[in-house]
Amino acid sequence: MTVRYLVLWPTAACDLACPYCYRRNRRGGRMGIEVADAALDLVADGVRGTGRPAHVQLAGGEPTLVPDLVEHVARRVAAIRGGRVTCGIQTNATHLDGDMVAMLRRHRVRVGVSLDGPPPVQEQARGSAAQTFRSLLELAGADVPVRVTTVLSALNVDHLGELAVTLGGLPNVTGFGLDPLVPIGSAAGREDLVPSEEAVVAGITALHRCLAQVNAMRADPLRWRELETVRAALRHAPSGPTRPGPGQPRPPATGETSRIRSTYPCCIRTPTPADDSSHTGTSSPRGNPVRNDVNCHADVVDPSGRTLLPLAMPNRPYCHAAVGESLAVAPDGSVYPCSQAVGDVASRVGTIDDVDWDGLRRRFAHDVHTLRGPCHRCALADRCPGDCPSRVEANALADPEHRHTPLTCLIDDTLARLEIAS
């Protein structure tokens, strides 16, 4: 099995105590170099054997608490990359000093910062806002590009417009994405952290409006991951009597392939006859059969772990974990299909020295991982981009009667309606 997306947790420890952190195991410890090297060897062997690109992501916990291991991984990835392997880090940015920023730039490590809003919102949600914003300025001074990840919760839903303004003032921030609250880890049972449907619609609407205003004043517009996903979905709007049913593949519109590739350089090739949608497989997050041998060729692998495949492609999986191409390694060497699954006993698929490859491939390939929402009234009903299978499962376990509309559905439907109206 080829690992296309590797997540390493240098430690499960963190200097912050975010109320919605998905970590199940908060014991610190640190990953040994031998564990990291064994995982990196899997990536290197896969790249050499297939010529297909891969991505290595440092996460956790707070990876910058183990700076020597971060640098070791960055050096190793740079040595095996050959233009085919990228490296990234997701950090709260409270420990980024000048030396670490210089190291990240030297080894071309892609930097993702966890930020939930302007300083007062960040302080309430995560704490240590002053340190985080100082580090963002340090990164800007070193001309290091940054992408921001924002957890959408009741703590910041009323301030999403301010998020756009805040990010717009940081010239090195290239874009951002919203990660809906997941009811696991610290957030398990925390109904007070779940934003209301009305608040989500209002917040997304404000963010959409403010982002347009901010981008009108920026030389390089901020790219909002969910907005780009929805725009790609809307370009596949069916028309006429040949309208496909839900879950059925549709061919790209004229010029769509080039537009997809220009918008998403990580996108996979266009479908070929070998991608026959009648192939028997398990269910994908969109309800299509997932080919266990899905051929996800791309120039690079997206740091988010999503395949970013064109919606027109048959058998489209949501992410590399959905087809067993993603591997997350905990500090003790135990392995899981993705970072969000680390510490979940049901998701453990062995150790880095003895991976259950079949279990890895099957973990997120079941019907329970299909996104379910009020599809009958969604603007993207027959071209749903889907959702993270781990998040879908967590939501189903927390809300078995589907009392709440999934936050992903609210975000995508609201954006689709705003785009259609504009």
Question: Secondary-structure blueprint of this entry?
Answer:
Elements: E1 5-8, H1 33-50, E2 54-58, H2 67-81, E3 85-91, H3 98-106, E4 110-114, H4 119-125, H5 129-141, E5 146-152, H6 160-168, E6 173-180, H7 197-215, E7 223-224, H8 225-234, H9 256-263, E8 282-283, E9 289-290, E10 326-329, E11 335-336, E12 350-351, E13 354-355, H10 357-362, H11 389-398, H12 407-421
Parallel strand pairs: 1-2, 1-10, 2-3, 3-4, 4-5, 5-6, 6-7
Antiparallel strand pairs: 8-9, 10-11, 12-13
Helix pairs in contact: 1-2, 6-7, 7-12, 8-12
Cofactor: [4Fe-4S] cluster
Biased composition (Pro residues): 241-252
Region (Disordered): 235-295
Would you write up a description of this structure?
Residues 1-218 form the Radical SAM core domain. Belongs to the radical SAM superfamily. Anaerobic sulfatase-maturating enzyme family. Its cofactor is [4Fe-4S] cluster. By secondary structure, this protein is α/β, with parallel strands linked by helices. The chain has one domain: TIM Barrel (Alpha-Beta Barrel), CATH 3.20.20. 33% of the residues lie in helices and 12% in strands. The protein has twelve helices and 13 strands. It has helices spanning 33-50, 67-81, 98-106, 119-125, 129-141, 160-168, 197-215, 225-234, 256-263, 357-362, 389-398, 407-421; strands at 5-8, 54-58, 85-91, 110-114, 146-152, 173-180, 223-224, 282-283, 289-290, 326-329, 335-336, 350-351, 354-355. The strands form three sheets. It has a nine-stranded mixed sheet with strand order 7-6-5-4-3-2-1-10-11. A two-stranded antiparallel ribbon has the order 8-9. Strand 3, helix 3 (98-106) and strand 4 (110-114) form a beta-alpha-beta unit. Helix 7 packs across helix 12. The radius of gyration is 20 Å and the shape is globular. The model is unreliable at 239-298 (pLDDT under 50).
